[in-house]
Amino acid sequence: MMPLTFALAHSLPEIFLALGALVLLLLGVFRAGGRDWIISEAAIAILGLALLSMLIDANGTSLIYDDAFVDDAFGRFMKALCLTGALVSLLLSREFMAREKIDFFEFPVLVLLATLGMLMLVSAHNLIALYLGLELMSLALYVIAAFHRDHLQASEAGLKYFVLGALSSGMLLYGSSLLYGFTGTISFSGIAAALKGDVSLGVVFALVFILSGLAFKMSTVPFHMWTPDVYQGAPTPVTTFFASAAKMAAVAITVRIVMTAFPGLQLQWRQIIVFIAILSMVLGSFAAIGQTNIKRLMAYSSIGHMGFALVGLAPGTQKGVMGILVYLAIYLVMTLGTFAAILSMRVNGHYVENISDLAGLSRTRKMMGFFLSMMMLSLAGIPPLAGFFAKWYVFLAAIDAGLYPLAVIGMLTSVVACFYYLRIVKVIYLDEPVATFDPVSREVTAVMVLGGLGVVLYWAYPGPLVAAAEIAAKSLF
Amino acid sequence: MNLAVAFFYLFSALMIASAFMVIAARNPVHSVLFLILAFVNAAGLFLLLGAEFLAMILVVVYIGAVAVLFLFVVMMLDVDFAVLKQGFLQYLPIGALIGIIMVIELILVMSGWSASQASLGNAGAPTPPDVSNTLALGRVLYTKFVYFFQAAGLVLLTAMIGAIVLTLRHKSDVRRQDIGEQNARDRKQAVELKKIPFRTGV
Predict the structure, then answer these.
(1) pTM for this model (two decimals)
(2) Considering only residues 131 to 170 of chain A, which have any Cβ-Cβ distance to chain B shorter than 8 Å?
(3) Which of A350, A358, A409, B51 is deepest in the core (most CB within 10 A)?
């Protein structure tokens, strides 16, 4: 039994978030003011504090809470991404929630709880911890998807997400129970030890069900159906949170469970991952072409990008995992920057979200037009922007492992995807302006500019990110 | 036949009978009461198995909370169960068919059951011989599984916050009771003396 202080020291971010959420909840209830901004600012501070607290002891791998929770370099890397996503989403949410008059104190509290669930999910080292983390995250996400409860589309989004999410939880649990039945243990390392040599068909069933449940959370094909509706219906800051932090956590746990619990079943899970990756890339590229709503377009784009990220998982190598980590970090920056731009689309006090509303942006708002175009080109993967390097790493890993068809399909679909990203750039630069956007708050502009600069200038200094990803990937092997 | 076996048959028979009455009773309130009887008998069965903690939890949670909540719902919602039950005979054959298939499946599963050696060797914690199971559960729940315990607590808290956020509406035209304000009222604010002229009425 480890001493308690040791366990607490290695789960500091989680403890900050849990205590922070409880304190803010009490504060919000007793102030009873309905809307006020202290809570949101405090939540941002707590997320920042959790981010900083990971720097205190950023070495080695430790298993705590009776091996249910692992604190390793991989986990810390992914937690940093989740926390950044949550922090920026909250920052972006302030203006939107106030204007839409839904700035209740529960929103930051629920975001904190969802982020806590994500961190627990990233660090899960057995099936119960995985499920609890996943449920904590998902429950909070269901609620904030429907947070605009008088808005029909938001309620629909929440309900849809909830029903399908419950289904995916059921699949995950079914797979987990099968796995426990066949191996007699819930710990990932125990499962890996029990699955050496020949495995029965039942274990493959379990693997399929568990990966299906997780594919739902990653919103990859064929479990993507909820994504466009939920992304479009939910309030935009919530969509930002879904597309950034929630994706990070879902991919992280998929990588972790596949690498630590199923190393002996690589042939089996590789088939599934390749299947999911190819379908996601194809659907993400083709289905987005006809979209007119930019949030819906971003939903299809995110489906495609998850497919690209999974290309890095298919080889099952350290290089591949490093590729995924770099990909996710860059994707996070691009997503946050793009959503900051979407949140700046406001005409006469109303938020608009059609692509046609962007017409002539380069003339009316030069800076926003430039940065949004850069973000789109980067999402398309055009060199020398960051998105190109992200794809480079995962495709290189796939080619190294001899997965040529996967890499070729990936490249072809990313060429197709270029079409709809370039269409937005065309609308921004070549179409006649229709309306001028209202001025936006400083934090939204700051996020957009920082994201844009990160995307444009990544090639100049990629060292730190790659080095961190390398250390993180090494800790899984 | 020893006493434990006798009680097993008593509890089982009562439980099956009351479970049948839950669906057969005409009055929905009687159904819920039979459901409670079934729970009590299930708790008795758990006691016979030596799982006294589960037995007590069943009584406290299922009877004390869930079944009573059911009772409230049944009493407050005016559901006409006679209408609901109208198609009973019509659907009986297909229902019986599904029931029989499930029984056959259960028998097949139970007769073909074998646990793999790997899983038997890995099986978690055997029940310690010298402690009661309440104590054993308590020992691991707050030590070994404290992380799960706390996490489950947070999940429930999130569910509660979610339910309140999505459904509670503060209506401005509803008068709410404010006990502090009520207690702070004194005679001057509450009572006013008016002089009314004699023989004029109010």
Answers:
(1) 0.88
(2) 132-133, 135-136, 139-140, 142-143, 146-147, 149, 158
(3) A358
